[in-house]
């Protein structure tokens, strides 16, 4: 009864609560705030779902994770748990880690969780596959079950002899097989390889017999190691070859017999017999006979061949033969490289021999070859002594540096090695201007003397003889040059004295002409300076450079025009002592002022290589030079018949008479000089000169017209005056302007008109003769 009373009491209490006022009920918001506050006070720990509508405790989450793993047969992906439980992946990972840490039946692999029950099922399935196929590959199992290889390997190793009835391959090939399968495999291989009598490629056997490659190789190695098979495996992978022991024995017997009978072994022949590394094979096979064998590039030779070579070399020395080609003694398979290597090994340390590739010669033969060139040395040294002064200075300087004359001996004991016999100077040394004979020419001379000599050997000897022959040639040339130098000393002084006299004469006139230029101004002065630079200054420069070039035995063109074109190149060939000064003189010829040339030319003359002293003119000498020059002009004027040239000479004489200065002027500038003379001459005298100039211009125009019509030959007057046909009108215009100015001046002063047009009577030539007579009387009657 008491129980029923209790039930009724509780029922009444429930009814009272249900009928009570809602003022004591909590809203959803209040509940959330209370939960949040409890969480902040760390009184409870809750995990929210990804949508935030629910929360769960960690213990319950781990319980649900266990349930899901069991529901999926002991294996599930972690990402799948997150989707099922609707909880953040970080909470899932933390729950999985807690389960694995405290429960050994669970195991975590990358991205998944696995139980021990799943591993048992996995091993059971693997065992069924193994019994069915006889072998399985762990890598294939990893792909089949989508599990890491290390996990599959660990499961298999832990389950061997319990859940899995098989064994793993000890070679680490990752094969799992049954004992019965291995026994059958071993038996098949033993029978297959026991029947072989010659080398057989292993890859072909694997493919044909459908063997598992990894198990094939591991089993074959075990059979060979245990002695069940007699043979060996050479190479790896697709190049692996099985060589039976019986074949190796026959092979060794053939090699031994061939070496004993022929004294050598060819590497290619051993390769054709199946020996992959012939040199290694020979060293291993004959390790006790290494002192009797010599390994070359293409073959190995024995002591019998070496003894034969040494005997032939000694016969060559005794019989004083010129040389021996070692290839004639070596076995036929040997190459030139083998012969060269053999000679280097046998005779490289013997100084009495010269080695050139496959040819060996005694050093006496090389020294005897020097005598072939004795007459050629004397002939060319005599020619050098007669033609090359620069060579004389060069060898003299080298002799001083070396402490005396260079000997004419050989090129060392072992010139063939290219080291001890090497001279101090190379063939391409630019400091030596004269080469006795090129190496190619030396080789040709040797081949002419010894016709059977190989080309390569002749070139080697030429390389050895080049420096000794050059030194003998230089020594012989020094001796001849010393004798010639004594005879040349006198002629050199005479040549220098003549140069001094010629340069001084030109120099005196240059300085006087330079004073005459100072009378003019502006463009006329510049034009006269340039003309003086292109004529007198150029002549001075050419004469001095020819002298210097001859002193240094530098060939120069005889023609003056060609010399002017080559002058810059010539200056570049001069020695350092004068090159810079000569370049300055050459450059000054292109300037506008004569003063630049004067200073640079004086500096060049003062050098030791020239030794020319240019003396300054005093008043007395200057007067005498002017008198002589005027007399020369008058003498030329007396004999001159050409009107244009006569005008040129008259103008120069009048200029000197009225200014006291000499002038060097081109024909095209004569009108400007005449214009200057207007202010220095009387009206009547200038009228005669001006009229003659007009007649000359008319005569030149007429001559030009006749030439254009094909009625005359080329006019020499034009070249003498250097007047271009284009300048005729310019000169006529200049004359007309002069006439107008003089006429105006004459009218103003009441004087006689100047520069009237030529008289109508008589031809131009007759008028020219008349006026020329008047001008000559005027010039010859001038006071000195």
UniProtKB/TrEMBL annotation:
Domain of life: Eukaryota
Family: Belongs to the UFL1 family.
Skewed-composition ranges (Basic and acidic residues): 736-750
Residues in E3 UFM1-protein ligase 1-like domain copies: 496-617
GO cellular component: endoplasmic reticulum membrane
Residue ranges, compositional bias (Basic residues): 414-423
Keyword Transmembrane: no
Compositionally biased tracts (Gly residues): 404-413
Transmembrane segments: none
Keyword Transferase belongs to the record: yes
Example GO biological process: regulation of proteasomal ubiquitin-dependent protein catabolic process
Name assigned to this protein: E3 UFM1-protein ligase 1 homolog
Keyword entries, A-Z: Transferase, Ubl conjugation pathway
Residue intervals of the E3 UFM1-protein ligase-like C-terminal domain: 622-723
InterPro entries recorded: Ufl1, Ufl1-like_C, Ufl1_dom, Ufl1_N
Pfam name, any one: E3_UFM1_ligase
Domain (E3 UFM1-protein ligase 1-like N-terminal) ranges: 6-281
Disordered, as annotated region: 395-426, 705-724, 731-766
One term of GO molecular function: UFM1 ligase activity
